Amino acid sequence: MHPIPTSFHLGPLQIHTYGIGLAITFWVAYRYFEHRLAKRGFATEWVSTLFLWVIASAIVGARLMHVVSNLGYYSAHPAEVPAIWQGGLSSFGGLLLAVPVALLIARRRCPELGVLEGLDIVAPVLMAAWALGRLLGPQLMVAGGGHPTTQWFGMYYDGQVGKRVPVPLVQAAEDFATYLVLIIVDRRVRSRHDAAPSLPDPSGAVIATGMIIWGITRALDEHFLLGDIGQTGSILVQIAGVSLVIGGAIIALRVRRLRRVEVFEPVSELP
Length: 271
Prior knowledge:
The chain has one domain. The chain is globular and about 60 Å long. It contains 8 helices and 4 strands. The chain is mostly helical. The N and C termini lie far apart (77 Å).
């Protein structure tokens, strides 16, 4: 069998399917975020500017993280540092730069949108985008597969010898399942708030759930399906996954404390 083509020619131009996939993914995420934001009653005219900055910062951050994680190789091949069409974008690197940029712009352009509320709105968007992005990104790029395998589910990837674990497909399924969980959590949180609007809005439940689930699955994927033992990049990804879980747990504890206040505070007001 032959690997999935990672590029094609349109006249003299060489078009990389990886880039097309990323463009489609960003467009879907933009439209979906705009929809969720409008549904909550917030203005959306600033979203286009936000996404231009997010796209640029996510790509730069993702590439820098990948280069730092594989510094030995890129020190010997510096001309390949900007070659993102060959693959090599770190999800965590993209988050590390894009999230602060997004929060800063949202703070300036939509100050009525709280940080945790905004993260709750965007969390399902990120998971839906990641699920789609796994299918249209790493699945179509050079060296997109995981560890070598002889099992029936193995696939051939451009730039890799032999059958590989189809990690992009595995991660797409994981991210889509996480997306469904976040939608369920989001609806439950909103329904509770709509039933008692006078009580504090427990924002943070959705993003906390997403951070915990995605941090666990991403760290496990790196350990069992992608990374090499002792490889610096693999260790960094696993540490980032654990850090994401810890951060999500801290937010979840804050939400739980707020909910307990919501339950017991009215009782204390009784004569």
